[in-house]
Every structure is written in structure tokens, then in C-alpha cells.
Write the C-alpha cells for this entry.
Amino acid sequence: MPIKGSSGLIANHTVIVAPSVLHFHSLNMESNKFAVLACVIVIGVIGVCEGGGLRKNFYKMTCPNAKQIVKSITEKRVLERPDLPAKLLRLHFHDCFVRGCDGSVLLNSTANNTAERDALPNLSLAGFDVIDEIKTEMEAQCPGVVSCADILALAARDAVSSSFDKPLWRALTGRRDGTVSNSAEALANLPSPFFNFTQLKQNFAAKKLTVHDLVVLSGAHTIGRGHCNLFSKRLFNFSGNGDQDPALNSTYAELLKTQCRGLTDFTTAVEMDPGSSTTFDTNYYSILLQNEGLFTSDAALLTDQNSRTTVTQLVQQDRFLKEFAASMQKLAAIEVLKGEAGEIRTVCGLVNS
């Protein structure tokens, strides 16, 4: 799932959270009961208390132009860089799978700490410059208000939606930024392009994501590119005897061999969805059913009957877009920080001093 980008799952690739209680600092028990009731009532009337404490119009009063700032800059950069949607989507995924959606993937390493972005699975991440550009403009208009985590969530949605006439999913806001980022946690939490189905299922379940979410979010591999070293073993040395993965379409494998130079090719990247790698469509599922999934983790989706059934259903574009929207909202609500937790960073790469 994986989000496609230059490496593995969105990986390049969530959690269903109960409606949050309104946050007050000095509520007694009776006040807490009232807050729960108020949120339930509000949900029924206008639906503003949603997953993980996130809301549709969180910045309506404090920074009313926040969403437009993100949309304007993101769409401008996508026009210049057609590969940007895959990169921002992957960046968002890699953020949420480690410590939740708290912008920790955006933090720079320091002399005393190697941050998530410098972990091996994240070395090919990109789009940081666009997030920084948006944050600079946001600070100029609404200083200290909009979190980097929210900017990333909005930018990923707007980038992928840029070729459509409407947003593909609702990007709720209200996240706070984390203050901890550690490369070891990225290694421990991110799904790998080498995972089999059991490993993928366990990895997603740890984030309260279902097998259905796994298959749906893997559809993000319909955009972006994958580096040869992440799948070359399937081409040149699958079982250690110089053989080819029998689960990989042989004609497709021969094509890949003309593009990748061997097991040690760490620089070449190929389209994950050949001929359609900048179009957000269902071709990923179509080629997957022809045994042309690039990564081991892609092919793994066909090894479980329930997963395979979902793959066949998602070939339908309308269904895929609907299901992707639902799973992305779950992803974007994983372990979010809110209230007084974390901070609102002034610079996305640095913890406030």
C-alpha cells in the first residue's frame, strides 16, 4: 500500500476513532458529561465533531484562508511537477504510520538524533520543500495557528485531487505537531515492499486498519515510481538460485530486466503503473490481476481470498474513489495530537525553541 513513490507501500506508499469530546482544561465530571452530550448533539446537527477530534472547519475563525493557501500553492507546484501527487501522498502516509499524523516525518535530524526522514525507508521521500513553502505563507498570514501536520494532510489531498474537479476525500483538520522524531521508529512501523500478506495484515492492524483498508490504500500505487532495488530480487534471484519470482508475469519481468541493471541498482526507478503513473485511476488493480504488481507487497494482495476479491471489486473507478476516500480519512486520523498536546511549529523542520 502502500503509497507509491520511490519505495514501497504508502507506504509510498488508521484508525477509526470515536467522536471526540470537546476539550476544556478545567472540566469537572458533570462538565465532562455535558461535553459528551454536546458533541453528540452537534454531530447530529452539523457534523463537526469527527474522527480523532478533527473537524471540517477547524480554522474557520483563526485562519479562514488556511485551506485556500494550501490548495493554491499545491496546485501551482503540481503543474510544474506532475510526480508531486505521489510524493506528497507517500509523505503523508509515512508521517501517519509513525507516531500518528503529527508531522514528525518533517522534522530534521540533529546532532543528537537521527530523525524519521533520514531512516532508510524514507531517504527517497520528497515534497518537503512544498510543505515548507506553504508553511512560510501560512505563518505570514496566520502566525502560530496552522500545524505542519494539517498542512501535510491538506496538501496530499489537494495534490491527488488536482486533476479532478472536486476534492477526492474530506481532509479534516485540528492536528497538533509532535516534538519527537526517531529513525528507529520509522524502521519499526512502516510497512515494507518486501512484506508478505501476513506481515502486511499485522502491520496495518497495529494501526487499527483492516485488510480492506490495506487493499484500498495499496491503490495509491497507481501513481509514482519504484526503485529497482526494492523489487530486483523478484527478477534476478528470487529464491537464491538466480531465478525469477514465478508469481510475476514473465513478459512483464523481461521488460523490467531491460530497465533495472541488477540486484545492486539503487538509482533506477520505474513506473509502478506503466503508462499511467501520473493518473490516479484503477489501472493498478487491473495490472495486479495480470500478475504485474511491482513489489512483493503488491503481489501479496492476491494470496488471500478476501483480499483478492476486494482487488477485483476496486477495478471499478467509482467504487475505488469512494473506498479510497473512506480509508484515507481513517489514515489521516491515526493517533492525532490535539488540545494542548504537542505544539504548532513555526518551521516544519524544527521543534519550537
User: Anything to note?
Assistant: Strands lie at 225-227, 269-271.
